[in-house]
Amino acid sequence: MFVSRHLATSAQLRQFAYQPRATPIQTSSFSTSSCHQAVSDSLRQKAQQNNQQFKLNNLFNVKDKVALISGGGTGIGLMATQALAVNRAKVYITGRTEEKLNRVAELYGKDIPGSIIPVPADITSKESIKNLADTISQRESHLSILINNAGISSHTQTTEHDNANNLRKSLFDDPDATIKDWEDVYRTNVPQLFFMTTAFLPLLEKGSKTHHGWSSTVINISSISGIVKTAQHHFAYNASKAAAIHLTKMLANEISGSPESRLPIRINSIAPGVFPSEITTGESDEIQKSYIPEEKYEKKVPARRPGKDENMGNAVLFAATNQYLNGQTVVVDGGIRIGVDILSVISGVNKTLDGLTQATGERQLEQHEKISEAVAHLGSKEVDALNRSGSHFEEEHLVQNVLSGAIVIGNLQLVEYLLNVENTRADINGETPFFGKPLHIAAAWGQADIVEYLLDKGADLRAISSYPAHVSWDEELEYLNEERRHAYRCPDDTALRAAALGGHNEVIRVLLSPKYQPSFKRQRNTYHRAMVAAARGGHMDTINLLRSAKKSASNLKQAQQEMLYEAADHNREALVRMLLKNGADVNFSCRHRHFGYPLAIAAGKGHARIVRILLQHGANMYIRFLFGSPNMNHGTLI
To answer: 52 to each of 46, 56, 189, how far by Cα in Å?
Structure first.
């Protein structure tokens, strides 16, 4: 089966890694002269000199380098401009809007080691590119770095249609879908890479000769949209970025790889994922920056956020200074292609699922987990097609994983579909080894709309706060000391605490809504457990929300001490201060915990500021009874 090479089990890997190998006995003697010589001062000096090569200012040194960046006025171009100029490079920025360029120079070009110089130009015009090259040639004897960043997006089109006529209406009949739109996008995103690079070849070659050990570099800013197979609703843009990546490889081969030329010029591309720019947000603020809310991509990118300016700066400095990098595409996407690659596996899902349902043991669980992650990204029409194809999608364990995966990524439409179509057999109160119960996982991942839908649809109300009767308070609290067994699984058996651990206040408000009238079993411990979970995450607003919702303010001492322990353990400085201000006992020991004293756990974890706060509030440095019972009379001095 085609997925086996990608989804090898841990048992298979162990067998491969530790398989005995027949090795002939070596009879020759080993030379030990180099490693047993006495370390002389001269050898030590050589080693210290070698160490100097690994200093950051040597590894990523762009001091006195001359750079030219197209589209340097906003977005990724501005990020690249800052990364180079702040590190002592002389950076020319170009673009069509002179006002934006001048504003960047005024805002970001003052009081920095390097410089930012605006030079307006239209890189979609060959004549304008020639004039730009002449201008730079008159000002500089060489060029060290050329970053071709300018680009535009295209008209978007929907592809989620269930028949050929509707798909045609969206893709062909749409009046905004024109050949001119394709031409405009291609003209800006592709030809300029060729003409900008070739126009500056003489200056780039001189740049390699000017600085010893340096080869000038061209960096083309492409996109992961040119790598992924999906259209992402903009066919023209993705096609242009794929062309840009391939053009980069051709230029690298013909300019520095061809025996006829072999110019000392490196040509690479950087393929960003989601970064704030005018292409992704449609606007810039008063300092030429764009903004994307982190929560928008929390469930879409493994990094749980869009890219930051400094992440792009890292990539630019790496590509510019690594003299051994040529003809490559550096992908900086927060791991988003992981999901896309899994989705490409699902292109053969009809046959694959058939084999998966017949697999056994660890491999079955591993593959079900991965397949469910991918299938959860599909829409209801794809799932329906799987059912009609007879691909064994009705397999109960698998479909429950798919339901859970849909909840994780917040696909309410797919959740509704799975719970309303008879032959999927999705169980609203079912549980899987990898995900747990639907209500729990929705709470853990902050999917308030799905939580409300599940409760309205008939999710067991007892799942809001109930937990196994045999689990004691101490055992339940010990769970917080363990890492989650699986990244997607609810951390415990109560949806309320799962939401509290993640600081999902909207979910908590839904769970505590009078609409559902939850009758909490062991109500005091239910709220306390949730507060302790919130303390671990440092969610002070969540703690206050739970305290205000609690019917009685009595009996909070135990929970308050547990919260102090969690805050000290996880370096939650503001929460430690709040708890101590509200009367938490700085010398109280949670005896069921290893290192049960707040001071001991903070010191053991190296949280110096927490230690200082605790000592200022009277923490006893001579901690007794650290291990075992009080009559053991053990102690330790911090």
So the answer is: 10, 9, 41
